[in-house]
Amino acid sequence: MDLWVANSRALHGCIDEMEKIQSCLTKVLYVVDSVLLPNERTLCDRVFKGVSSPGDFASTVVCRELNICLVRIANHLATILEYEMISPVLIYRMIELLESSLEANSKNYKNPSLGYVFIMNNRRFIEVETKLNGLGLAFGDDWLHKNTTKFQENLELYLRSSWNKIVDLLKVDINQLEPSVTVELMKDNLYWFNEHFDETCNIQSAWPVCDEELREQIIKSIENMLLPAYGSFLGTFEEFVGKHAYRYIKYGMFEVQDRLNKLFLLRE
Predict the structure, then answer these.
(1) Which of 2, 178, 220, 241 has the most beta carbons within 10 angstroms of its beta carbon?
(2) In this model, does residue 166 exceed pLDDT 70?
(3) pTM
(4) Are 96 and 127 in the same domain?
(5) Do 19 and 133 fall within a single domain?
């Protein structure tokens, strides 16, 4: 009986101690998320005023370090077997803070597309860390599935935000227009395609994507969206304009692919 009482007291003592740790960590993480990170973003904006890429990159690195810290703390807690009755509660709370942090900080980017890339970067990191450290049970299958779904949603939002306008320039209803009008419209659309494509590639070549697999996945998604539309447009354009079409075509199919393969080259 004495041994049972002693063990019971020890167990309650461990739980009480873990609850104190949980409360402390929750408060610290709340302060980091609601005070420190927003102030860090403000500081980056002031230091790199007028130059968006370095400021966005610096902010991305800071936020990424917080997420690394959160995932590693969850990993350590999940391995402390004697606290397994309480650690899932703390881990769940940390996941909530992590997700709210991602969503809040993604809104700080002036370019919405970069905000979507920021979320994809961090969600891919979480996915990799959970697999490497065997955290599937701690995070739960439902959350891991949700993470994959959220990642895909942000990929679609990124494509829509960055590339929809460019792809729309390649859509011309030739059946509704006179041939002469079609030619002029296609020339005009091709000009603006070249302008927007150049601008987007120049900007996004300096965006950070640290995971090569993620980089390839995003580029492949762009190719699937852009290349068929561009190839079809060029075929129709050459048919209508004739032998002088080359004067207006800045990029062939291989040149477009080459530009896309130079996206997201900045490394953290």
Answers:
(1) 241
(2) yes
(3) 0.74
(4) yes
(5) yes
